[in-house]
Amino acid sequence: MKMNKGFNITMPNVAFAWGTKWHITEDEFMLYAHLQFMRQGGQWNQTLTSVDMIIHYLGLETKNKQRDKGRVIENLNSLVEKGYITIECEGDMKKVFFTVKQVQEIISTDFVVEFEEDGKKRKFMGYTKLSGEHYNLANNEGRALMTITYTNWRNNINYNVPKSEWVKVLGIAKSTLEDCFNDYKERFLNVFEGNHYQNEQGQIRQETNSHVIADKEKQPINLEEKAEKVKAESFLDSLYCKVTDIAVLGNEEIFKQIFDKKTFIEFQGYKAWKETTCKFVKEEGQKKIDKMKASKVKGGYAGKKADSLEKEYQESIEHQKRQTEIIERMEQQHLVELESWDIGRDSETLEFVTSYKMKKKSGTDITAFLDD
Predict the structure, then answer these.
(1) Do 17 and 103 have their domain in common?
(2) Which residues constitute the domain of residue 118?
(3) What is the pLDDT of residue 365?
């Protein structure tokens, strides 16, 4: 079923978080997108549908109708269990209409799925808009729709997806990925080969490929310009293996501040560079600072920024030093007070004298208030 090209839906990015309970299969992804597109007018978060309608619209018919229905119900229940939808149904789902609602929390920027893999933090949050035009390009194929949506999300943040990540996102083997992408290249996927470079060991390596979605039946607009934009960040992938500083590897923002030419270096990145013990980080950071100081653009603004960062860093060191000295003096004073107290007390006895004086009791006997 073709969708209105101008209609957009929101697909939660946590759906791609492989290895977590939020990762959904290609069938579930296609079904979830279909349900969002089928929302009735006036019902912004409500879809009235049936199993038979889903099978018809997604082209899932086979000779075994019961198996077809079972497949759809299994995917619906899985989406419910994973927290993507809720279903209101009275009766046998195979026979009656039911209402599906999208769980709104999972597309919130406050909803974050985060995990660490190979020393690198992975974060999945928010949503990616999916247009009716891109939905139609997938032609009811869940894997194709996942490829389109994931490509669009990662391009929005200038991140090129390596093959090792594609196989995890799509849940397929590397050989299957090659076959799929060869097919997608004919239909909607433009793949731009990454540049080759030589690493420190003299080995030839290739930067990560970049991908752009475009309807091959139309003439892409400014496709080369788009390709250059998404390739500008691809070299970053080749640098990760050279960094040994966990503080830099574990923080994507700091990493980009030090290595990415288009990302301004801020205090946290500058501090990480100044204090790192990683030779590669130290050298690359120094190159960036040197270029900043040599820049004449806007009256040497970049150089002034570098000087400002150094001044702020030195001030932070002095502040930390003063704080340390204060703490040390307080600890020393506390020790002196303890020693004075030890010397002044009697080693045999320690009499406690209180200034409190007991008041004289009145003539009232408290036992008068007690039960017999």
Answers:
(1) yes
(2) 1-131
(3) 40
